[in-house]
Amino acid sequence: MSNHAASIEAKNLTKVYSRGIEKIPAVNEVSLQINRGDFISIIGPSGSGKTTLVNLLGCLDNPTSGELSIAGQPIFNSARRLSEKDLTKIRREIFGYIFQNFYLIPTLTVLENVMLPLTFYRKPGLEDEGLKLLKLLGMDHRKDHLPGQISGGEMQRVAIARAMVNRPEILLADEPTGNLDTKRSEEIIEVLQELNRNVRLTIIMVTHNQELAWHASRVFEMRDGRIKEITGQKPGKKPT
Amino acid sequence: MITKFQVAYKNLLRKRIRSLLTLVGIALSAWVLVSLLGFNNGYEHALSKDIDNMGFQLMVMAKGCPYEAATMMLKGGTGLKYIKESMVGEVAKEPEVEKTTPILMGAVFDPNKGESGGISGYFGVEPKTFIQMKTFLKFRQGGWFTDENAYEAVMGYEAAELEQREVGDKILVPDKNVEFKVVGILERTGTQDDGTIFIPLRTAQKMFGKPDEITTIGIKVKQGADTARLEDKLYKLPDVQIVSLAEVKDTIMKLISTAKVMVLSIATIAILIAMVGVINTILMSVHERFQEIGILKTIGAMPWDIFKLIWIETLILCALGGVLGIGLALGLSKVTGLAIRWVLPYAPIGGLILIDTKLVVLTMAVILGIGLVSGLYPAWKAGRIRPLEAIRSNIG
Question: Sign of the CA dihedral B379, B381, B384, B390?
Fold first, then answer.
């Protein structure tokens, strides 16, 4: 892996959606730099463009304009747009994703779900990674259960293990606690914090939960497609 | 480590009933296909066997309908016409002829046969010459007649079974008030000989009141001789027709070819329907898994991976269906054979459905080919799902 300090660098990243003749800039000239090992959270009201931004940063979508480089490699600029195939290649090399819905395959066991990415792509030497991750996430006793037999919090842990099985550099989490109660949400955030600390995993998390957002090392707020880093409001001022 | 095959297989288990119904559709069409091809194989084979087992290639008969004559030879029948026995000598003179044998067929109404009585056929044969033609006939019990004027009978396997006779028993010909002693019972041959009662030619002529007359001369043609030329020469004899068994076979095959075409079209339609069923099932399951497939792409699956995954699902369905269908066809070939025998006007005696390895492999190849083709579109469609759309469809 690259030792480049900047994990993600975005310059004037813009994504414009057309609705009829109206052009809506969901992400408007966003520039930011995320360093390796950062735990970033992005908050903002719905429709502020936070999910669109994360999709751009995670190479799930092409921007309308602007520049993006990941681990020092230019991914998008004015001259370069990537095909779906190239996007997939970058995604599986660098990113892991978790979503509000866990999307586990109901007929596969917990362990099989975690190992599923290796069916498509495998970095060398990861044969036991699935079980190791389940242990790390306290889920190894559930490895032979089907997703229908475990709780929502456990399902999200499985989804995290699945996202981590190919040892990504960056984990993208879009509302990872959206379907969980407060206690389970806290637990999931703790898991993410541990991963961030232990394996220097870069994490970008989108959430509408202000309280959880402050568990991250840096907090950004999005409003009308523009981004602003919030500083100096660290814990202690948790809204209740 | 979990393989694509396992993933695909487990996907099919999600909607068990739907997968099962699709599977049954494929199995049924495979069954129809393999049975029909087996019938094509078997019918011709059985017919050839029937005809080869006659032991001769040409028959001289009194003028009449050639089909009737042929059917009579194959099935026995009534309304017979006769030729002079002296003709045998004239026929034997021809250089192409290797052997001849005179036959007198006769039918007797037996009121005790079946529920309302039935026809029993008797074959008057000349032991000396007839045996030479049918060297393959083997005895289960006893042997041929002791004398050419004896009141003795040799029974085919099924005839003996039906009448429940053993060597030493008597058979009464009710209409004629004549009694025969059973001296031999033949082994099963799988031909019409199984149902025949053979008696000495002289005795038959006496019983039917036809001295010096016969119904048929069987001719064995010399190896490599010009059969067509021989036929031409034989037609110069008065009031006869020559029936070539090769022609009979061709004629019968032609008669059933129309039925074959129809039946093959039905098989083709069955397969097309199964194919549409497969496409529909797989498309539906791709549609249902839209988001999931999108997520598979975020965890590293390339379009080709997804394509393969869906394609494997189709292939599993088709392979299982094919195996099941072929199994059904093999297991039920006797029943299918009976059903066909019931429908067809004339069916030879041997097994009508002949399913060999070549046929099984061919059918499997056809079914798998169908799987490959019907999987193409759903797999291609699934491969094109973009992860972002899948995720958005959830948010929106």
Answer: negative
In a domain, B58, yes or no: no
Same domain for B267 and B196, yes or no, is no
pLDDT on residue A158: 93
Decide if A208 contacts A42 (C-beta within 8 A).
no
Of A60, A88, A127, the CB nearest to B302: A88
Range with the lowest mean pLDDT among A145-159, A208-222, B255-269? B255-269
Same-domain status, B17 and B157: no
In a domain, B243, yes or no: no
Residues B80, B77: Cα–Cα separation, whole Å:
8
Structural domain for B345, as ranges: 4-49+252-395
Q: Report the percent of chain A where pLDDT is more than 70.
A: 94
Distance CA A168, CA B273 (A): 47
ipTM value of the model? 0.82
How close B10 gets to chain A, by Cα (Å)? 6
| Domain limit, last residue, from B189, B216, B238 | B238
**Each residue's pLDDT tens digit, B331-359:** 888 888 888 777 766 667 667 778 888 88
Cα–Cα–Cα angle for B118, B124, B129, rounded to 5 degrees: 145
In a domain, B106, yes or no: yes
CATH number of A40-60+84-230: 3.40.50.300
The C-alpha atoms of residue B39 and residue B59 are separated, in whole angstroms, by: 28
How far is the C-alpha of B281 from the C-alpha of B285, rounded, in Å? 6
Q: Which residues of chain B lie closer than 8 angstroms to A49, CB-CB?
A: none
Contact B129, B148 (CB under 8 A): no
Length of chain A as a residue count: 240
pTM of the model: 0.71
- Count the domains in chain B: 2
Coil vs helix vs strand at A80: strand
B3/A106 CB distance under 8 A: no
Chain A contacts to B (CB-CB under 8 A): 51, 55, 60-61, 84-85, 88, 91-92, 95-97, 99-101, 103, 105-108, 112, 115-121, 127, 162-163, 166, 174
A228: closest CA of chain B, how far (Å): 24
Whether B152 and B268 map to the same domain: the answer is no
Residue B59 lies in a domain: no
Judge whether B26 and B325 are in contact, CB under 8 Å.
Answer: yes
Cβ neighbours for B320, distance < 8 A, ≥ 6 positions apart = B23, B26, B27
Under 8 Å between Cβ of B259 and B131: no
Q: Which of B10, B14, B300 sits opposite A120 (nearest CB)?
A: B300
